[in-house]
Design goal:
Layout (H helix, E strand, L loop, with lengths): L12 E8 L7 E7 L4 H12 L7 E4 L5 E3 L17 E2 L5 H4 L6 E6 L5 E11 L9 E6 L9 H13 L6 H7 L11 H9 L3
Parallel strand pairs: 4-5
Antiparallel strand pairs: 1-2, 1-7, 2-8, 3-4, 3-6, 6-7
């Protein structure tokens, strides 16, 4: 009798709509990630898709308020927020915390600036033949720069940059590297950065 080859089904793909909370017009990305991707890797994908610099702490939170992340030595189990103990993001996958279409979860980056991302599962689908994941397939607007002071700081930064007569204009222009177009979004460059996450 011939032996059967063991076949492994390809993991499904989560199509995620990720939006920064509290900024209008919206800053968002559409991401396609493997359903079995650990949250620690999803963190890397989110960093690349929004142009963040991996400079600050972060955590995920599901609808039951369970938090997932990585503690630094000496941090409390709940980042000091009084919630349930933090679960290790390396041990949980996207499908573990949001298995179905229309599920929603959060990602918070930089507990000082407090960039809250609302992540909605648009659909769960089979992988497309020949496609590589993760991928960024759509988006709008540039994300704020790291360390700009959260939403109020970002709004103030934009006001200063739009007013060449403002006393801090030159200093802020230098701080952002010479220019900052809040409407800019380069899909090709973003997708390339996201696809490099392994």
């Amino acid at each position: 009798m011939a032996s059967r080859k063991k076949t492994t089904a390809a993991p499904s793909i989560h199509v995620l709509h990720v939006e920064l909370v509290g900024i209008q017009p919206a800053i968002w990305r559409e991401l396609h990630v493997r359903s079995d991707m650990p949250l620690s890797k999803l963190h890397d994908v989110l960093q690349e898709s929004f142009g963040w610099t991996h400079s600050h702490m972060h955590m995920f939170e599901d609808t039951s308020r369970q938090q997932y992340g990585r503690r630094a030595a000496g941090d409390s189990d709940d980042f000091g927020f009084g919630g349930p103990p933090l679960r290790d993001e390396r041990k949980y996958t996207v499908t573990d915390i949001a298995p179905h279409a229309r599920n929603i979860f959060g990602y918070i980056y930089d507990f000082g600036d407090d960039w809250v991302h609302r992540i909605r599962v648009k659909k769960v689908q089979p992988p497309e033949p020949g496609s590589r994941y993760p991928a960024c397939t759509a988006g709008e607007r540039a994300a704020p720069p790291d360390d700009c002071g959260g939403i109020p700081g970002y709004e103030r930064l934009l006001e200063i940059l739009q007013d060449p007569k403002h006393e801090e204009h030159e200093e802020m222009l230098e701080w952002v590297g010479g220019s900052l177009d809040p409407e800019a979004f380069d899909l090709n460059a973003t997708d390339k950065a996201v696809r490099a996450v392994r």
